[in-house]
Amino acid sequence: MEIKIFEDAAALGLAAAEIFANQIKAKPDCILGLATGASPVPTYTRLIELYKAGEISFKDVSTFNLDEYCDLPKNDKNSYYTFMHENLFDHVDIKEENVHILNGNAEDTAREAADFDKAMAEAGGVDIQLLGIGNNGHIGFNEPADAFTTGTFKVQLTESTLQANSRYFDENPMPHYALTMGVGSIMSAKKIVLIATGAAKAQVIYDTVKGSVTPQVPASILQNHADCILLFDKAAASKL
Ligand code: F6R
To answer: What pLDDT was estimated at residue 194?
Structure first.
């Protein structure tokens, strides 16, 4: 794992966007694996700037998002569908048919998960995957568990994740289930970029980087990936 430490979230966002922009320039029809949450917002903001400056185009890019809540309307303000459109897709020239976001309202979630994995495989797999990390070490919504997960599946969110994300939910209660790429799907990306900021992540960053590889800290499996870059601000890296 390669580690890079930045002064703050803004500087980290610029660096992460540059990695993704370089991937798009090198392979205009690349497959991006994308994340939601607070961490990637500066990265997406910078990618929009680079698009508007004419430096990159998403016209042949395809994307696969890590996860989506179950039982939340697609257009709810807290759905990851809405998040991705507001923070990236609505501002660049990506084709809607090239955007893949799990349908958390699918009647047959096992089928939805299998179709998603099939589409990802048929596209040739993810060239570069962006990841955030939960305070409990989750990547996607792969929560601490007794074994590493494999493909996309329906997960029950843990108390830690409910606490971390419930601040976004006011009128509607936060969903307790989500569909997520499995750890196996995430690890099959050719390149992985994990980003983390803030002192609240310092302990889990320490466990991810210096601890043993364990499904109790799902992100620790990244130690086994051949091409993984970790970008931290000073606060998140403070225990390393
Ligand atoms: C979101 C996702 C999650 C987040 C993680 C960190 O698609 O997969 O693993 O990356 O919960 O969230 P933030 O960035 O809000 O701290």
So the answer is: 98
